Amino acid sequence: MSNSPSLKIGIVGFGSFGQFLAKTMIKQGHTLTATSRTDYSHTCLQLGIQFFRDVGTFIEANNDVILICASIMSFTKVLSSMPLACLKKPTTLFVDVLSVKEHPREVLLRVLPEESDILCTHPMFGPESGKNGWKDLNFMYDKVRIHDEATCSNFLHIFASEGCKMLQMSCEEHDKIAAKSQFITHTIGRTLAEMDIESTPIDTKGFQTLTQLKNTTMRDSFDLYSGLFVHNRFAKQELENLQRALDRVKEMLVQRMREELGPEKD
């Protein structure tokens, strides 16, 4: 049970990540509702969560927090299709959990009523990396528009109380860093997959790390990967930087080969 007051949290998009977050929230004593394009009523029944097939009825359920767990590529469509005029509590805190941050920030500011609070977050872990607890795992957040500090603080406490490293930064700063780290990681992993690399009888530790990277990356959908590119304005530059770096390495190797073997070996 969390030491902070219980919240009524509505989850939009109850796939694997929404379910993953929900289990810890329930454990802490929060009351949950959910809605999703897929019928998760049976799963919700098992977890003690009220499931709404109708989004309008979900919106009317008087949630303190609406947590949007849609994909990057569907985020705008999901939010724009919600009947926000049905909100019983205009000051509801809306939270996203996307791996990009400027995009949801812009959409939330554009679509939501001015009275609604906005917290952009990125839990930098998932069902696999967080299966044994969230201690020391990174949780990034940006208080984009907050009127009700108490509700925002209580929601952030969900993650702080589990031992997460709480990182407050702007959405822009997050996307700059993520383009150099998360996007490049996924790009290398998918490039290795395109090369069909597999374990061999003489693997070095380094190569084992590469095959693990490929396998981990390919568990995520191409929809997620493309979202990291399409909706992070810094990603294109990092992709170009990677291409230039590969070209430079190739040039250095070719130059050394010419020095050793002569130009006719090109």
What does this structure look like?
With 266 residues, the chain is of the alpha/beta class. It has 2 domains: 8-169, Rossmann fold, CATH 3.40.50; 177-265, no CATH class. It is 47% helix and 15% strand. It is built from 11 helices and 8 strands. Strands 3-2-1-4-5-6-7-8 form an 8-stranded mixed sheet, with helices on both faces. Strand 2, helix 2 (41-47) and strand 3 form a beta-alpha-beta unit. Helix 8 packs across helix 9 (205-218). The radius of gyration is 22 Å and the shape is elongated. The mean pLDDT is 96. Pfam families: PDH_N, TYRAAT1_C.
How would you summarize the topology of this molecule?
Blueprint: E1 8-12, H1 16-27, E2 31-35, H2 41-47, E3 50-52, H3 55-59, E4 65-68, H4 75-80, E5 93-96, H5 102-111, E6 117-123, E7 138-145, H6 149-160, E8 165-168, H7 171-180, H8 182-194, H9 205-218, H10 222-230, H11 235-261
Parallel strand pairs: 1-2, 1-4, 2-3, 4-5, 5-6, 7-8
Antiparallel strand pairs: 6-7
Keywords: Coiled coil, Oxidoreductase
Pfam family, one: PDH_N
Protein name: Prephenate/arogenate dehydrogenase domain-containing protein
